[in-house]
Amino acid sequence: MVPDDGPDGRGDGWTLPQDDVAGRLSELARSLQREDSEDAVLERLVPGSIDLVPGADEASITLVTGRRRVESRAPSGRLAQVLDELQERTGEGPCLSAVYDEQTVRVPDLRDEDRWPEFSAEAARAGAGSMLSFQLFVEGDNLGALNLVGRAPNAFTEESEYVGLLVAAHAAVAFADAQKLHQFKDAIATRDLIGQAKGILMERYAITAGQAFIMLVQVSADTNVKLLAVADELARSGRLPLTRGGQG
User: Fold this and answer.
1) What are the tens digits of pLDDT across the range 31-77?
2) How far apart are alpha carbons 181 and 201 in whole angstroms?
3) Fewer CB within 10 Å: N-end or C-end of the chain?
């Protein structure tokens, strides 16, 4: 719950006026929406999160693909990178819990944290005092989370959690938009490449577009090569991959 505004425009326990937070959050949201790739969104999100969320000294993004492969993206510094590597090695930690089980995980003091004993002990020795992790998205077996690190214990407050949730929500929307744009560009590129390959076959064999597409599909099946790879080979070299009968 958002604290009520006090007479000075701050909520109870807030370190910044809420209108200032709202303005900076809107600016971050606009900058994220301007990015046209997932990597660009993540790279802008990390410094934006550190700037906005009280208590955050470092940050990173954790992506999990196939619910198995853990990947650290855009760590802001050495400490964030060490913690990502530590979570990947131990298979435990607040970020993985945020990804799999909870939308938000807050760790006040890593020295006293017993939910992930191996991770917490090594993270504290590495120089981390507290952590705050937010689930960014879940798409089938692919998941993502935002990790914030404070060097001091109890660095994160209710305000930190609230602002972090807003940042994560805007980031999730921008990331989804960037993915759709990427998929759209890929679809156009695929269509154009197959169109080029069909055009070559139509001219070479005096056949229709439908017949050319059937020929590409048949070559793909006969050679066990993906249709897009068959089209790419034909567009680049003018040749089709050799079929089982030895003809290209």
Assistant:
1) 666 766 777 777 888 898 999 999 999 999 888 877 667 888 889 99
2) 30
3) N
Going by C-alpha positions, the residue among 146, 164, 136 that lies closest to residue 51 is 164
Q: Which two tokens stand for residue 125?
A: 């020795």
Write the class of the CATH domain 183-237. mainly alpha
Ramachandran angles phi, psi of 58, nearest 5° = -140, 165
**For residues 100 and 96, what is the distance between their CA atoms, to the nearest angstrom?**
6
Question: Which is more confident, 245 or 9?
Answer: 245
Q: Taking the domain 18-182, which CATH number applies?
A: 3.30.450.40
Alpha helices of 5-149 — where are they, by DSSP H?
18-34, 38-52, 78-90, 94-100, 117-126
Sole residue written with tokens 């991770």: 119
pLDDT given at position 10? 40
pLDDT for the residue numbered 23: 72
What pLDDT, on the 0 to 100 scale, is given for residue 2? 46
CA-based end-to-end distance of the chain: 67
> Across the chain, what does the average pLDDT equal?
81
- For the beta carbon of residue 111, count every other beta carbon within 10 angstroms: 14
Q: Where are the alpha helices (DSSP H) in the chain?
A: 18-34, 38-52, 78-90, 94-100, 117-126, 158-205, 209-223, 227-237
CA distance 165 to 177: 19
Q: Domain ranges in the chain?
A: 18-182, 183-237
Nearest by Cα to 170 from 137, 141, 138, 142 = 137
State the Cα–Cα distance between residues 124 and 130, nearest whole angstrom. 8
